[in-house]
Amino acid sequence: CRSRWRRQSSPVHHHNGLFRRSPLTKTCRCWRPPRGAPGGRKRSNSSGSEMAKVHPNTVASALPKPLATAELGLPSGAHGTGEAAVLTVWKKSLLFNCDGFTVFDAKGNLVFRVDNYAAGNRGEVVLMDAAGTPLVTIRRKRLSLGDRWLVYHGEEAAAPLFSAKRHIGFLHSAALAHVTPCGGGGGGGGAYTIEGSYSRRSCAVYDARQRRVAEVRRKEAPGGVGFGSDVFRLVVQPGFDATFAMAVVVLLEQMFGSRGLIKG
């Protein structure tokens, strides 16, 4: 193209009495914005394009709220909208040198965060909201017959809300894990059973009445291409606590994930 930059014909008077040259203007019709600029072509960097698809926005979502009471798993008016909440879970922390999760709602707004520094692991995982407020803390407790995970409100160290353990049975069963409320911690809603396959991102959470209250599904791009196991959907049914549902996902990662967030 022969068209190049040109300047406006008249100079622009500066406020201090000096003259400066006019800004450059573009006259070529075939011009395109540079790569990476607004309106321009996207960069070919695969990680950057993946981030744009997984979390288009950085605004905090209004879905989760800091828990004022230990009523995880009970019906919540904040989530009882009549429609299931579909969250996108990315098994990656947005912070450098951290393991964890980043969760977005259907509009691409940040909902939950899990950021665990590899070098500073204290044997626990903290699930936070978008602002970094601790919602629940998951700690591992070793037992003689198997490991158990305890779920605490906020960053408390006493009176756990729930206890979770991996399903152990000699007969073939679809059950993966069981989550039961602890008597002294105020957890409610009865026992929950997780069935399916977490490694395949196809499992569901059932309450004591065998109602499906949440499930993990694979996520696909608009073109039908899968994101793999690191990006998946978390579907939360109306009236069920999304914080508890995400806490179950963190528990499943500790039990069946290729690399748990709790070391040792």
From TrEMBL:
It comes from the Eukaryota. Residues 30-57 are annotated as: Disordered. Pfam families: LOR (PF04525). Belongs to the LOR family. This is Protein LURP-one-related 8. It comes from Anthurium amnicola. The gene is At2g38640_5.
